Amino acid sequence: MIRRVKGTRDILPPESRLWVAVEAEAHRIFSGFGYDEIRLPVMEPTELFVRSVGEGTDIVSKEMYTFSDRKGRSLTLRPEGTAGVARAYIENGLGQRPHPLRLSYMGPMFRYEKMQRGRYRQFSQIGLELLGAATPEADVEVLLVLHTFLAALGFDDLVIVLNNLGDPEDRERYIEVLKGELTPHRERLCRDCQRRWDENPLRILDCKVPSCREIVEGTTPVGEVASPESQTHVAAVEEQLSALGIAVRRAPRLVRGLDYYLRTVFEVISPELGENTVICGGGRYDRLISDLGGSQVPGIGFAIGEDRLVEVLPESTRERFLGERPVAVLPVGGGAATVALDLARKLALAGVRAEVEVTGRSLKAGLKWAGKLHARWVVILGEDELAVAQATVRHMDTGEQERMALDSVARRLAGGTEAGVD
Ligand code: HAM
After folding, report:
1. How confident is the model at residue 208 (pLDDT cuts 50, 70, 90)?
2. Is residue 105 in contact with ligand 1, taking CB distance under 6 Å?
3. Which end of the chain is less crowded, N or C, counting CB atoms within 10 A of the terminal residue's CB?
4. Same domain flag for 308 and 362
């Protein structure tokens, strides 16, 4: 037997319906705020991620699916979406369009990570980017869209945490401060942090090892070393979010695993999956496009991990997305099948989910099949019914049934509820 690649998943029905519904909701909310989808390649030149996400990051140094194509070019399966958006912005001359530019995306990303709950090697992100606005209002909008989307999905216990990373110039200063403060404890840092010391010292702040956490607790927050301009920026973001009724918590030691960020960075944490499970990450990246050879275009955005989001979807939302019960259409006897399929066509066009019995079951076996489908209604199309252009519509829960004109069935079931049949 051939098995799926480790870290990849088969998303089966009916679970897949949750994904479709979550994506539809994302399209609805994002487009309501003026974001249009950009569809980008899943593979990009390796150099794109090296230069954007950063050489010293875990993603680039050990998690990328990198391979040579038949001509020896180094390609990488995208580990995230922002770099591709920046590349596409430059390559397609999107700077010519009215700004700010609002783009959204969703699709598979690839990281060679250690498997655990909510962590996969192929996972999906739902994200958006707002390009060409450096104001606090831009940050607020992005967080507002995020919050609106999560609220539309019924989440009310998610926590948005936010921090000020300062500007890149501040970062260098901060790293000096941090290293100075950590030096007396250097020996006690874990092996990974020993490596981070030279490669990416900010990541020491993000270490999950309890002894490292303890050491880090005593250090100066990055936001305190940040420039006054960036402090004013992030304070304005916090103030406006509060005016919009969006609760955010300052996380003074939040740093993100990608190098392109500056100023505002944020994450959404699910208490259900634990403090370490991040549903969404994002932030500002005003130098990314120019670092990749484009013009000076500021940007901010986020990406939600769809796998994790679906995993913690509130029960009531799951029910709403999965609850729709189909109509079973049951032709019995010769000639009824095409009538059944014709009815299914009308039902589908009326927005009613219908499944036709196409394997030739008897009435009794067909009713059993409809029960397994958890159908709300069964439309029985027997010879007696068809002779007078009627159908028998049976309510599966009560067993009550009624004869009705065939051409009225779709209309009367279109409500999807008992009220649909009088
Ligand atoms: P990120 O924090 O690396 O940010 O990823 C965003 C989200 O993707 C995470 O919060 C998590 O929910 C999900 N995720 C990441 N890795 C995995 C995995 N192995 N399995 C399942 N889910 C995962 C970015 O990717 C940035 N591009 C976000 C951004 C957009 N910043 C600005 N614009």
Report:
1. confident
2. no
3. N
4. no
348 in any annotated domain? yes
Q: CA 75 to CA 47: how far, in whole Å?
A: 8
35-47 pLDDT, tens digit per residue, is: 999 999 999 999 9
Which tokens in the block code for residue 242?
């509060």
Has residue 389 been placed in a domain? Answer: yes
Out of 318, 339, 356, pick the residue that ends a domain.
318
DSSP 333: S
For 275-280, the CB contacts below 8 A with 24+ separation are 276/208, 277/118, 277/308, 278/305, 278/308, 279/158, 279/304, 279/305, 279/308, 279/309, 279/312, 280/146, 280/304, 280/305, 280/309
Number of domains, the chain: 2
Query: For residue 96, how far is its CA from the centre of ligand 1 (angstroms)?
Result: 29
H/E segment holding residue 304: strand 299-305
Verdict on whether the full-model pTM lies above 0.90: yes
**CA-closest residue to ligand 1 atom 15:** 305
Q: Is 331 in the pocket of ligand 1 (CB under 6 A)?
A: no
